[in-house]
Amino acid sequence: MTYEQWLQSRLTAHGFACGAIDGVIGSATIAALKAFQKSRGLPETGRADTATVDRLRMTSGSSASSPSSRLQTSVTAAAATGRNTWPKQDDCMSFYGAVGSRQTTIDLPYSMVLAWDRAIRVRKMTLHEVVAASAMRVLHQVAEIYTERERADLGLDVFGGSLNVRRMRGGSAYSMHSWGIAIDFDPERNGLQVKAPAARLSHPDAVPFWEAWEAEGWISLGRARDFDWMHVQAARL
Ligand SMILES: [Zn+2]
Q1: In terms of domains, do 8 and 109 share one?
Q2: Are residues 206 and 91 in the same domain?
Q3: pLDDT, tens only, 210-236
Q4: Ligand 1 centroid, distance to 80 Cα (angstroms)
Q5: Is 71 within a domain?
């Protein structure tokens, strides 16, 4: 992991997603830095000065990020075939490897915006190398099923984060986001505790979206458990 990627992953861990964790310090990363600085009462310089880096190092009520071990393990045969072979949540460490490792970047088939600053366009997303192709297939389908207007109406273009090394809320187990195998859409209208039909992604027009994920074996916590409707993951419950 480069220093730039470390910066981006820490910003993401604090809730200021930069799109892809690709080590490229572009407008999204600088905007995330400024927003983070503002939230911590620091001067909004958009630069990673010492005070800012010190605050980024702190945990956000969660774990510190573990350095990516950059394992160049080859994709397993099971994962290469993709569909419906995702591990159970408890088996993620053995299946996907160390948290934060083996990440890759995909080019999104339709552009998204950052949930916390919709002026910022997102064209890339960081995901685990084993699930990236599957997510690409789903997102391509989403781009075909829904018009741009429909995607915006449903919030399918609002990126709430993918890779984020942290513990689950109120627990010691790692969040599925720690492996880059979960994606959040439109967190504002699909809060963690918001149930159907209040959650926007629980509405009937979202069913084709969820079916596209489920055809690739991904799990919607909303569809399975009626909570966290923003979230989809490549791990079984
Ligand atoms: Zn999530």
Answers
A1: no
A2: yes
A3: 999 999 999 999 999 999 999 999 999
A4: 24
A5: no
Q: Are residues 29 and 88 in the same domain?
A: no
Best CA proximity match to 162, nearest among 192, 187, 193 = 187
pTM of the model as a whole = 0.76
Centre of ligand 1 from the C-alpha of residue 140, in Å: 20
Tokens of 172: 């010691």
What does the block give as tokens for 112?
């998204």
Q: How large is the greatest C-alpha to C-alpha distance in the chain, in angstroms? A: 50
* CATH code of the domain containing 24: 1.10.101
Instruction: Please state the domain count of the chain.
Output: 2
Tell how far the Cα of 2 is from the centroid of ligand 1, in angstroms: 25
Q: Residue 39 is part of which domain span?
A: 3-57
- Look-up of token digits 């809730």: 15
CA of 30 from ligand 1 middle (Å) equals: 24
For ligand 1, a single-atom ion, the residues with CB < 5 A are: 182, 184, 231
